[in-house]
Design a protein that fits this description.
- The protein is an alpha/beta fold.
- It has 10 helices and 17 strands.
- The strands form 2 sheets. Strands 2, 3, 4, 5, 6, 7, 8, 9 and 10 form a 9-stranded parallel β-sheet that branches.
- Helix 4 crosses helix 5.
- Bound molecules: pyridoxal-5'-phosphate.
Length: about 350
Amino acid sequence: MKNPSLIVDLQKLHHNAKTIVKLCGDQGIGVWGVTKVFCGSPEVAGVLVEAGVSALADSRVENLVRLRKHGFSSLVLLRIPMLSEVREVVEVADICLVSERTTLEALNDAAKQRRKRQQVVLMVDLGDLREGIFYQQAFEVFSKLPHYECVEIVGLGTNLTCYGGVIPTTETLAKLGNLAKRLESELGWNLQVVSGGNSSSLDLVHRGLMPSTVNNLRIGEGIALGREAVKRDPIPGAYQDTCVLQAEIVELQYKPSVPEGEIGQDAFGNVPQFEDRGWHYRAIVAVGRQDVDPDGLTPVDERLEVLGASSDHLLLALPDRHGLEVGDVVEFLPTYGALLQATTSPYVKKVYQG
Ligand SMILES: *Cc1c(COP(=O)(O)O)cnc(C)c1O
């Protein structure tokens, strides 16, 4: 087998997706399954659809194009579109998230040319300061929007815990629900979707505290790693080991734990610091920053410790030789960031099992 490899257990992913679809479904919340952390993988998409997600969502047009080619429908574009890609967006996305009037106009023009209606979810910023019209201004801004011939506003959405780290609460998300209600009662809007965020909103659902006005979540990490995304607590009944990174030992030697000589900058401009624990066994594993975020790797074997990494080499400390040899494969569990990097790195082989 080629190394490094990312082994993705599709049965565990299916189980996680089903668990979350049920958790949310019991509270009247539909789930859009987010494929971006798997680079829009059709294998993963198939599993998510089978588990009952109501749409597939990805941040990249290229990934949606791939999913469409594999026959998937109900596709949502998560990243607010670039003006330079609106034609492709209209081509491939059934729904896209939008926060700019200019973009609505461009989408309307592109949709008109294609003789289609583009469905959009308008994004509202509840304080996290990433995309969306700031909630205090949203009603006024929305009330001034013209009627678009080929753009249909089907919902409101928000995104939390992405830039500002704002934790979703009942009060915060009620602002989105109340805005939706006001748009319906005062402006006669018909909003099918009130999308209350991403995996960071799962804890609120789990505790039964999601306002009833929220009827949709967009879930990537929760399915991929079986964790909510505020404190990274495990979701009850879900697997946290769906994905394993395998990499190969290329050197295993007995060396000091502190470098010898005058210490300057390392390969990335940092001045490293070292704790002296005497001589120990150290392994070099053939995986690095070109493949993965090394800070987001936890060895499956708890006796191994990641010391650091450069572009292509990961250093491990071993308590003793404990049976490892050059050529052996070491397994790691990735964080969300490490997984994202592994799936997008051309050097990492992806293996979908089950
Ligand atoms: C990535 C993304 C999501 C999914 O986030 P997770 O934390 O992986 O669940 C939802 N919405 C938007 C806009 C995103 O970019």
